[in-house]
Amino acid sequence: MAQFSVVRNLARRAVGLAEQASSDMSGLDGSLAKSELDDENNSILTEIDRISATVEFIGKTPLGGSDSGPSSDAFPAGSAAQDELAKLQSASDTTPSDRSTLAAANNRLQATVAVISTQAENLKAAESQIRDANAAEDLVSLTRFQVLNQTGLAALAQANVSAQSMLALLGQ
Model's pTM, two decimal places? Predict the structure, then answer.
């Protein structure tokens, strides 16, 4: 699923932003640089939430719905920033596991579809053979009836010829 790649890339970017924000290299909490980082982070979190809420696989939301992202809209300061960074890294690290779980489920479904398709094909072939056998049985019955009918007609014709022969002998 391509959505996993998109979410993973977004999560990686969010991790990078969180690292930058927590390193105090971006300036003070109220600075323009910090605000820009917050804006980009908020956009990333919004997109991750949108994807998480809209992606469905067999009636389920494999990306966890809209509550899968970090807990806040702005980067916190100090140890809270480190906690937020750990959450983002955890989310980024679990995406391959989630993808492999869904890929395994998809492979099982494809195998099941292949088996069911083969069974359906075999069932159609068996049904065709039964129809062929029924048609052959009907043809044998028809042929037997025709032979009996022709035998009966031949016997009747023979009986008529014998009777006429006897009358012809008696009439002379």
Answer: 0.42
**Total domains, the chain:** 1
Q: For 52-103, how does the pLDDT look when each residue is reduced to its tens digit (9 = 90+)?
A: 788 776 666 666 654 444 545 555 555 666 676 677 677 666 666 777 777 7
Q: How many residues does this entry show for the chain?
A: 172
Q: Has residue 38 been placed in a domain? A: yes
Q: Establish if 83 belongs to a structural domain.
A: yes
Residue 104: alpha-carbon gap to chain centroid: 12
pLDDT score of 88: 67
User: Residue 48 burial (CB < 10 Å; 0-12/13-18/19+)?
Assistant: buried
Per the domain annotation, does 152 fall within a domain? no
For the stretch 80-84, contacts whose Cβ atoms lie closer than 8 Å and that sit 24 or more positions apart, written own/partner, are 81/18, 81/21, 81/22, 82/22, 84/18, 84/22
Instruction: Report the number of secondary-structure helices (H) and strands (E) in the chain.
Output: 3, 0
Most distant pair of Cα atoms in the chain: their distance: 144
149 forms beta bridges with none
Structural domain that includes position 20: 2-113
Other C-beta atoms closer than 10 Å to the C-beta of 169 total: 8
Does some domain include residue 158? Answer: no
